[in-house]
């Protein structure tokens, strides 16, 4: 929890990672705000802000008086968002750079296949 990004964002990303790896399946209860705050030794308001990012995006939902739970379809929503980020960060610039070098789509695909094989 010290890579320069806001702590609340890191909390949200850690919860996302647990949903993606299956250790927090859909409809399972997530740790309470106080548990997250105690574990990470942070202010509960900071933990709440991280959890609320996921509530706002539909990944988590609140059951009044019970706690927070992983929403149905959360894993697929997270995967779709990560795929979009991957496309924007890597594929789009690759395609643009390939075009400036005069590479065809087939040449780029061949290069990717060769790299994947190693």
From TrEMBL:
Residues 5-73 form the HTH gntR-type domain. This is HTH gntR-type domain-containing protein. InterPro entries: Tscrpt_reg_HTH_GntR, WH-like_DNA-bd_sf, WH_DNA-bd_sf. It comes from Demequina sediminis. Keywords: DNA-binding, Transcription, Transcription regulation. Coiled coil: none annotated. Gene3D superfamilies: Winged helix-like DNA-binding domain superfamily/Winged helix DNA-binding domain. SMART domains: HTH_GNTR. SUPFAM superfamilies: Winged helix' DNA-binding domain.
